[in-house]
C-alpha cells in the first residue's frame, strides 16, 4: 500500500497546532465581564431588575459590583433587605457575582457579618480570572483608604505581579479629587503605577466619570438603581446602565451601556468618550 506522505504531514501539522493551542496558558483566552453600579442610595424601582436582565443577555463570564446593594443603615432591617436582593438575583445565580462593600452595605459590625454572609465575600479580597487580577478594596466606612487597606493592596499587587492585567475596585472613589485635578501625588496612584495597574473602578457617585492619569484609567460606574443627581442629563454622566468589559489578551475595551427603555435610550459609548463632567464635547 502506498503511503501518502503529504496527507501525513498535514495531519501532523494540524495535531501540532492543536497541541500548541492546548498548551497556551489560560490567560490566552478572551472573555468579557460586566461592571454593576450602585443599586441603592435612593433606589429607583425596577431599574436594578432591568440592569440584570440586560447584563444576563450579554452572557458575561461574571459580574463585578461596586457596592451599595442594599439601602442599609439600619441593623434591624438589613437582613430582610439582603433577602430581597437574593430573590431578585435568583434567576441569575449561575452567574458569578463579585461585590465590593458600599457604605450602604457595611456601617456596623452586624452589617459586616451580613455582607459576608450574603455576598460570600470579605470586605476586601482579590481574585483572578484567567490572566486578569482584581483587587477589591474596602472603603465602606471611610472616605479615604486607610493605611491598612493600602498595605493590603500593596501586598496583594506584589503577590500578583506576574499577572499582565490588573484592576483595582472599590465603592467610594477615594481618588476622585486627585484624578480630577490631575494630581498624581497620592498613594493609590503610586502603587498602581508601581505594579502596572491600568484600571481603577468605583461607584458611589451614581455618575459616569472617566479620567486618564498618567496612563491609568479611573472610572466611576453609572447607576444601577441609585437615584440620579445633578442635572440628571445623560451627557453630564447621569444615566442608568452598566459597563461591559471586553478582554482580548492584554487589550481591554470598556463600553458604557445605557439601559434601553423605559429607563434609558439604549445608547452605547466607549469609555474614551467620557470625561470628568460627562461626554467630551
Write up this protein.
This protein is an alpha/beta fold and 281 residues long. It has seven helices and 14 strands. β4 and β5 (132-136) form a beta hairpin. α3 (75-89) runs parallel beside α4. It is globular and about 40 Å long.
Task: Tell me the series of helices and strands, N- to C-terminal.
Answer: HEHEHEHEEHEHHEEEEEEEE
Q: What is the radius of gyration computed over CA atoms, rounded to a whole number of angstroms?
A: 21 Å
Q: What is the count of DSSP helices, taking H or I runs of 4+ residues?
A: 7
Report helical residue fraction: 25-40%
| Overall form | globular
Q: What do the pLDDT scores average to?
A: 91
Head-to-tail CA distance between termini:
74 Å
Determine the strand fraction and express it as a percent band.
15-25%
**Order of strands, widest sheet:** 3-2-1-10-11-12
**Parts with pLDDT < 50 across at least 5 consecutive residues:** 1-27
Question: What is the strand tally?
Answer: 14
Largest sheet: 6 strands, mixed
- Secondary-structure class: alpha/beta
Record the SSE blueprint.
Elements: H1 5-23, E1 30-36, H2 47-58, E2 63-65, H3 75-89, E3 97-99, H4 109-119, E4 125-129, E5 132-136, H5 147-159, E6 165-169, H6 176-180, H7 187-194, E7 199-202, E8 209-213, E9 216-220, E10 241-248, E11 251-258, E12 268-270, E13 274-275, E14 278-279
Parallel strand pairs: 1-2, 2-3, 5-6, 6-7, 7-9
Antiparallel strand pairs: 1-10, 4-5, 8-9, 10-11, 11-12, 13-14
Amino acid at each position: 500500500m502506498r503511503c501518502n506522505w503529504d496527507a501525513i504531514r498535514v495531519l501532523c501539522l494540524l495535531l501540532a497546532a492543536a497541541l500548541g493551542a492546548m498548551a497556551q496558558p489560560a490567560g490566552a483566552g478572551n472573555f468579557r465581564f460586566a461592571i454593576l453600579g450602585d443599586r441603592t442610595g435612593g433606589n429607583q424601582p425596577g431599574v436594578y431588575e432591568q440592569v440584570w436582565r440586560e447584563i444576563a443577555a450579554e452572557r458575561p463570564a461574571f459580574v463585578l459590583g461596586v457596592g451599595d446593594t442594599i439601602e442599609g443603615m439600619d441593623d434591624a432591617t438589613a437582613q430582610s433587605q439582603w433577602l430581597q436582593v437574593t430573590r431578585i438575583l435568583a434567576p441569575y445565580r449561575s452567574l458569578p457575582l463579585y461585590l465590593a462593600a458600599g457604605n450602604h452595605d457595611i456601617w456596623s459590625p452586624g452589617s459586616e457579618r451580613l455582607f459576608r454572609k450574603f455576598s460570600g465575600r470579605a470586605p476586601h479580597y482579590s481574585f483572578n480570572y484567567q490572566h486578569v487580577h482584581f483587587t477589591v478594596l474596602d472603603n465602606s466606612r471611610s472616605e479615604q483608604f486607610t493605611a491598612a487597606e493600602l498595605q493590603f493592596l500593596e501586598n496583594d499587587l506584589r503577590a500578583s505581579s506576574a499577572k499582565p492585567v490588573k484592576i483595582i475596585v472599590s465603592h467610594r472613589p477615594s481618588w476622585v479629587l486627585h484624578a480630577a485635578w490631575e494630581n498624581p501625588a497620592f498613594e493609590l496612584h503610586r502603587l498602581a503605577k508601581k505594579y502596572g495597574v491600568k484600571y481603577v473602578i468605583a461607584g458611589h457617585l451614581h455618575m459616569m466619570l472617566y479620567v486618564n492619569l498618567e496612563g491609568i484609567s479611573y472610572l466611576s460606574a453609572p447607576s444601577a438603581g441609585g437615584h440620579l443627581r445633578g442635572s440628571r442629563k445623560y451627557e453630564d454622566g447621569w444615566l442608568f446602565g452598566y459597563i461591559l468589559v471586553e478582554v482580548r489578551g492584554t487589550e481591554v475595551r470598556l463600553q458604557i451601556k445605557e439601559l434601553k427603555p423605559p429607563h434609558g435610550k439604549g445608547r452605547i459609548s466607549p469609555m474614551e468618550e467620557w470625561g470628568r463632567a460627562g461626554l467630551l464635547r
